[in-house]
Design a protein that fits this description.
Strands 6, 7, 8, 9, 10, 11 and 12 form a 7-stranded mixed sheet that branches. The protein has a 3-stranded antiparallel sheet with strand order 3-5-4. A two-stranded parallel ribbon has the order 1-2. The two termini are about 45 Å apart. With about 350 residues, it is α/β, with parallel strands linked by helices. Helix content is about 45%, strand content about 15%. The protein has 3 domains: about 70 residues, no CATH class; about 130 residues, no CATH class; about 100 residues, 3-Layer(aba) Sandwich (Trna Endonuclease, Chain: A, domain 1), CATH 3.40.1350. About 35% of the residues are buried. It is globular, with a radius of gyration of 22 Å.
C-alpha cells in the first residue's frame, strides 16, 4: 500500500494502531514518511514478536523525515538499504559499446520508470522529476526563498560533476551565501541526488588536495540539467564528465549490491597529478582512470604509471594492485606492465579481484 494516497496517509496518521491492525503483517508500506505518527506503533508491533523478521517493509522518497523517525522510534529494530537507480547490467543484461546506443543510455538515465516504459520521454520525465523534487522535498526541508535560485544552483553544480567541490565559487555564481550552499549541498547529498568522493592522501603523499569531488547520482538527470540529449552529448565537452559520473555510480551500486570490501577515493596532489579513482581493497590500491576512448594508450596512463612507481618504491605497507583505464574497448589489453585497458562491463574485476 502507498501512503501517497491522502486518505490512507490520514488514516495511518490519525489512528495508526487501527491502521496496522487492519492491514496486519507482513506489509509493505510505501511513502511511509507521510504518517510519522505511525512509527511508535510500528515499534510496538515489532516488539510483540521480535524474533519474527521482515514484518514490515517501509519505503519512502523523502529520506530526511524517514530517517529522523526511524532513528527516534525503530533504532535496533530495522535494517537500512538505500536504493540507487538501475545499473547498466540491470537495464540491458550487458552494456553495449556502440557509441550512439551508449550515449542514449547516458542521456536517458537509469531511473526504473524510464526503462519500464520506453515510450516515456526522458525530457518530460526529468522535467517533472526536477519540479516534483524542488516542490516536495526542497521546499519542505529548506527555507529556500527562491526555488529558481536552487534550480540554478543545481545546474551550476551539474557543470562541475566530476570536479573538485568549490563552494565559494558556486556561491558567487549562484549569488547566495556560502552558508546557503553548505545547506543545499547537504540536502542534495542526503537525498541521493549527488555523491561526494573523498580524496586519498594517507599513504601516497602528504601534500595532497583535501577537498572532495562531486558527482551527480544519475547521468540522465545530469544530462537534463546540462541540456544535453543523446546526439549533443557526443559532441559535448561534458561527455568525459558524464562518463566518469556513470562509472562512479556503477562502482557504488556494485559495492553495495555485493557487499564488497572496497573503498573508493580519488587522488590529486599539488603538482596537479590526478587519478579519477583509487580503489582500496584491504590495503591493496588500484588506480583507475575513466576514459570515453575506445583505445586508450600509454599517454592516458602516464599519471598512473608515475604514482605506481612511487608507491612501489616507498616503505609504506600498501601493495599496488591491478591498475586500469575503464573505457569502451570491447576486450581487455595491456597498456604497460602494470596497467590494462578494461571494458567498463568488466568493472567487477577491479572491485572484487580474484586474489582479494
Amino acid at each position: 500500500m502507498s501512503l501517497d494516497l491522502p486518505s490512507l496517509a490520514e488514516q495511518a496518521e490519525r489512528d495508526p494502531g487501527r491502521f496496522l491492525a487492519e492491514h496486519g503483517a507482513p506489509a509493505l508500506i510505501d511513502e511511509v514518511q507521510y504518517a510519522p505518527g505511525m512509527f511508535r506503533h510500528l515499534k510496538q508491533a515489532v516488539d510483540r514478536d521480535r524474533h519474527r523478521g521482515g514484518q514490515f517493509i517501509l519505503t519512502g522518497g523523502q529520506k530526511f523525515t524517514l530517517m529522523r523517525e526511524v532513528s527516534d522510534s525503530l533504532a535496533g529494530r530495522v535494517a537500512l538499504f538505500e536504493l540507487e537507480p538501475l545499473s547498466l547490467a540491470e537495464i540491458r543484461g550487458q552494456a553495449t559499446t556502440v557509441d550512439s546506443e551508449l550515449a542514449s543510455t547516458l542521456a536517458r538515465g537509469l531511473y526504473p520508470e524510464l526503462w519500464r516504459d520506453p515510450a516515456i520521454s526522458s525530457r518530460d520525465f526529468h522535467s517533472s522529476y526536477l519540479a516534483t523534487y524542488l516542490e516536495r522535498d526542497v521546499r519542505q526541508i529548506l527555507n529556500v526563498t527562491s526555488l529558481r535560485d536552487f534550480e540554478r544552483f543545481m545546474r551550476i553544480l551539474a557543470a562541475r560533476s566530476g570536479q573538485l567541490l568549490n563552494k565559494s565559487d558556486i556561491a558567487k555564481d549562484v549569488g547566495v551565501s556560502p552558508n546557503a550552499i553548505n545547506d543545499w549541498i547537504a540536502v542534495l547529498q542526503a537525498s541521493n541526488q549527488i555523491a561526494l568522493l573523498e580524496p586519498y592522501f594517507q599513504n601516497i603523499a602528504k601534500r595532497s588536495v583535501k577537498s572532495p569531488k562531486v558527482y551527480f547520482g544519475d547521468p540522465g538527470l545530469l544530462c537534463h540539467l546540462l541540456n544535453l540529449d543523446a546526439k549533443t552529448l557526443l559532441q559535448s565537452p561534458y561527455l568525459g564528465a558524464v562518463w566518469e559520473t556513470l562509472l562512479y555510480a556503477e562502482m557504488r551500486k556494485q559495492i553495495s549490491a555485493h557487499a564488497l570490501r572496497c573503498d573508493v577515493y580519488y587522488y590529486r596532489d599539488q603538482r596537479a597529478r590526478e587519478v579519477d579513482f583509487v580503489l582500496d581493497s584491504g590495503g591493496k590500491l588500484a588506480f583507475v582512470e575513466a576514459k570515453w576512448a575506445e583505445h586508450p594508450d600509454a599517454a592516458d596512463a602516464r599519471t598512473i604509471t608515475a604514482l605506481d612507481a612511487e608507491l612501489r618504491a616507498s616503505q609504506l605497507r600498501v601493495l599496488p594492485g591491478k591498475h586500469a583505464i575503464l573505457c569502451r574497448t570491447p576486450h581487455p589489453y595491456p597498456i604497460d606492465e602494470r596497467t590494462i585497458a578494461l571494458p567498463h562491463t568488466h568493472l567487477h574485476e577491479l572491485l572484487a579481484p580474484p586474489s582479494a
